[in-house]
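User: Please predict the structure of the protein below. I'd like the answer in structure-token form so I can feed it into my own downstream comparison script.

Assistant: Understood. Taking the following sequence of 93 residues as input:
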Amino acid sequence: MDQKKLNKARKKIDQIDKKIFYLIKKRTNIVKYMLSLKQYKKQIIDRKRINIIIKNIKNNSIKNNIDPKITVSIWKSMIWSYVRFQQKNFRKK
């Protein structure tokens, strides 16, 4: 194993992780705004939209030669994490 190359690759991953973190922060702010627009807790889960998102992720993964099991798993985890966040923070108006 070439430790120098491994460390260089890890630094690249660290840089990507910083970008992902910033995007998650932006996404969280939008989710918070969307939550403020919802009047009823039942509006939090939109299964039709979730299915469309997952289908698009799967198709984009295949087109871009990425294992869809990885991307779909990541997106499902993210979606349901935000669902739980919204359910926890929902305030009836």
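That's the full token string. The mean pLDDT is 96.
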